[in-house]
Amino acid sequence: MQKILDRTQESLAQAFATLAQSAKRQQRLYLVTIGSLMLIVLIFALVLIVVAGLKQLDYRRALASQNATDISLLIHQEESFLRRAALTLDYYYGPSGGRSAPDDVQQAILKTGVALGKTDGADSNFDIVVGEITRNAWGSQLGERLGRLYEAAQSTLVTQQAFEIQQRATLIGLNEDYAAILPSLTHPLAGQTSALDQAAMPAPQPAIASLLRETLERRIEAQTGRRVPRKGERIWLEPYRDPLLNRLVISVVGAYYDGDTPTVLISTSFPLDALALRLAPPDNEGVNLLMTVDRRIAVSSMPLDASVTNLVQRAVAATPSQIFHYGREGVIFHEPLALGFGLLVGYVPWRALAVALGWQLAVIGCLTALILMTIALMARYFGLRLLRNSFAETSRALQSEMLNHVLVSATPVGLCIVRQSDYSVLTTNALAIELLGIEADSNRLPPHIVGEFLAQAPVQPSAMSFARVAAFVVPARPARMPAQSVQQSPTEQRNEAQLSPSPDQDGGAPSQFLQFIYAPARYAGENVLFCAILDVTAQTVLEQQLRHAQQTSEALMRARTNFFAAMSHEIRTPLNALLGNLELFARTPGLEAHSQRLATLDLAADALRRVVNDILDFSKIDAGEMLLVREPFLLIDVFENIALSYAPMHGERSIRFYALLSPTLDQTLIGDRMRISQIVNNLLSNAFKFTSTGKITLRAEVTDDSPDRAMLTIRVSDSGAGMNEETLARLFKPFAQGELGASHGAGGTGLGLAICARLCELMGGHIVAESVPSVGSAFRISIPLAKPPVDSRAPAKARKQRGIVLVLSMEREAGEIMEHWLHHAGWAGHLVTLPDAAQAWLRLNRADAVVVSGEYGLDVIAALRALQPVGVVWITRAGPLHPEARGEGVLEVTEFSRTAVQSAIELAHETKSTTAVPTAARSESGPAGIHPTLRGLPVLVAEDNPLIQNLIAEQLVELGCVPTIAHDGEHALKLFEETPFELVLTDIHMPEMDGYQLLAALRKLQATVRVLAFSAVAEHEEAHNWRERGFSGYVAKPASLRELQAALLEAAPQSVATAEPMSSAAAGSALSTDDKARYTAMLKQHLQKDLPRLLAIVEEEDVQALAGWAHSASGAFVVVQEPRFVEQCRRLQRLCNDEGRWTTEMDEISISLHEALSDHYGLDEQSAH
């Protein structure tokens, strides 16, 4: 059957070959003829368009030539006027001149320095202005000197009107403050027709003379290097803003010389806008412009961008006059002006030329389209109709027949038509017979395939059962099943075979699988299925392998996750124990000779810890185990704490570190501040590592991204070694540190920046880097943060207008940030960068305070205070967190704390220059006065936590007491035995001797001693009955100043019933940002020593020691306002109190707390790349 079909195809092809060839030849010849005719029409239309364009360009050039002639005449006219004005001055300032000015003019000059001059027979006046110093200098010669100026101005105005000059002219004294303005400022000029234009003119003032002279002298000096034109020289000044007209003008300036001494400047000015209107081409299509000899554009009828300006300049330089320059953007031509003044240039863009030729192009286009359409219609009607129809019918018949043969015979897919009633094969191709294994004397499908068809439509087979395109996969040969599987359905057998396509029992290749894709159809009056058959054995085996590989991969991922979770504790615990014991060993007396080796060991161990932490953190991120915290936090606190921690890191290197933090950071947003701090710390650590000299800058700001989301943008830049493009391309890939770090002598795993990039992705942001070798690098991070709910947002504070603060900063960008913070706090700031500018400003203005950056010393501050005794705030990188006096009226403070700077400004504004300001020992939140009972009261404090020791000591000093600190109960008892105290504050849970034992020992020594319990207990029952336990009272840890004062007054001997009033700032228990930053830094330093002790306790499984550690740590976290860690410590303490032995839960909570503290305070994450 296949051979018959092939022969039929061959005969059909031969039968139609001759007809097709002849028809195609006639068609090609006819189409070539018609195409040639259309091409001729198009070429003729293009020739007409070119001719019309050339005529339009000739017309434009003729207009440009006329404009060039007019402008050249105007230039001659202006220069002639200046020569005549110089001759007029020479006449009236010579021996023949000497009449006095009219009396009314003299009286007006003496009274106001301004007079209105009049001319005989002219309809305009002129203004004369004379400065006060000049009037006094003239003295008795005022009338004669004024008369010469008056007559010279009269004659010059008449000359100006005779020359029909529409611009305003000026006669300005060079050595004395006087000027004549022709015509008067009250007289409107041509083009100044509206009352609004006239009202914009300034009133004549004596100061106008010096203003005009200084403006012209500056412009002449900038253009020629001289302040006055030479004798007989006229200078055309480039565009500048005229102080009289307040418009951009072009001026021509000359000078009158009395002998060899220049005496008077003579000038006239052309407003650029009026000149541009004069140059405008017809219908404003295109641009006309004046170009100077050195090809700079002086006036343009329309503004041009930089690219077009460069194009015009290059074209003028390369093209002679009278010649058109055709470029990609348009046509350019130019005409020379008189006296070498420059060129008049015309620029006509192609689009403008097309607009100018609009109706002509429309006519040509319409005619061309009409002719082409006529040719096409005629060709279609008379030529192609019969030929195309006959050829199309023949082609369709041939193509249809050939397509049928190709689809049946040549397709690589098995095809067959199956009768739906009995699943017999009606027709098929050779590939389908091969795939199905149908015998020559049979036309039925194999039984197991028929069973699969029945499984697809289990009810009575019909057309409705197969009313869709469907597919299934079935084995090519029926599978040999065990006896118990005989009752399985075909689908179950097929699924079982698919899940395990194992080799045959004889070790041969895997079973063959076929995919049937079928659809219902009608053929020869019967319901049939059109089937396509594919061999999908390889695909089925591959799917099985992929499923197996996926299961193996998931098992490996789970194993790796479990491994790193276990190793996080197993590696960090001995490593931190090693670091802690190494630090303790270094403090052992008698090892001074080995200090260098111990320092080397400490550096190596710390580097090993950073490497381990980088690898573990990266593994967490890579395994998807890194979880982000969403909590509200104040952005500015995070960045100021970071800046304060990096302020002293430059060491002996000449590095300047700037933290340019926008006031937009002063808001609460929701996100993971620990991870944001980790990213910034990584980038700053790298910047300090790779920068040996220059500048490192941290910038941060917040912009609104949507009503519910803000975008945090951070930029860290340095002037370090930089990176090439190859290194930059792989910068954020893991372990990319190697070559770059080795080449610069820096260590690390190369995971720091990879961790930063992954953390940014986790938070929905991104990080990009830019770098230039030997110049520096810059990293830009964008992180979206959620805004708190509207009902929980703090209401906007009304901004109180305070006063004016002068800011002197050598770094302009840092000064601008300071200005923004001042405006944010209600101050009006004025920024200068040089001491001379600051002194000049102070001579003319009154400042409420002055802020001076650390680049300037106290000598500069002294010079400023000599001009105005105003309070000065000196902000330095190494300055204190609280204002400290550095001389009379001078406060020093760190530049990295906005609260400290603002507090210093307030103090400077309040104190002015009267007295010195309290030093850093005084807290901003201290009480308004010291109670007499507490003044000088000695207080013994027993506290084992260094952070709380510092806090309670500062509070007691603030209240007027004299504190003595003991680090535990035994130490306190020893101090009390040496010097008895009237009042004792003691912690309850302390090593060696707790608070209860200390209370009993003190009562034995002195029964009347007052002892206050000082504890941070969480249980109400424990804190309720302190007096029943023998204490004189209870002070919560940490306590506000008001609470501490009340407790001390109640327990102190001879106490008064009421306490003195305290300021509202002292009453609150919340720490200021600066205090929190300071205590956080102290806590971080304490944890570096205390966290290894926690690991040692876990190793020893000491329940009592763990309870004591948790109690001590919870008090410290209460001080720095970290409720999350406070709750974890108290939970651990309750667990230790409830359980008598070590439990797995204690171990888990301790290790989790250790890792959380290490991550939060960056103790284990000093990463490097």
Low-pLDDT runs of 5+ residues are 460-465, 482-487, 497-509, 738-747, 913-928, 1018-1023, 1055-1069, 1165-1169
Instruction: Calculate the mean pLDDT score and round it.
Output: 79
- Biggest sheet record: 7 strands, antiparallel
Tell me how many strands there are: 35
Roughly how many Å apart are the termini?
74 Å
Number of domains: 9
Annotation field: number of helices: 33
Residue share in β-strands: 15-25%
Shape: flat
Task: Characterize the structure shown.
With 1169 residues, this protein is of the alpha+beta class. The chain has nine domains: 91 residues; 172 residues, no CATH class; 77 residues, no CATH class; 108 residues, Beta-Lactamase; 74 residues, no CATH class; 163 residues, Heat Shock Protein 90 (2-Layer Sandwich); 102 residues, Response regulator (Rossmann fold, 3-Layer(aba) Sandwich); 134 residues, Response regulator (Rossmann fold); and more. It has 33 helices and 35 strands. A hairpin with a 2-residue loop joins strand 21 and strand 22. Helix 15 runs parallel beside helix 20 and helix 16 packs parallel to helix 17. The two termini are 74 Å apart. It catalyses: ATP + protein L-histidine = ADP + protein N-phospho-L-histidine.
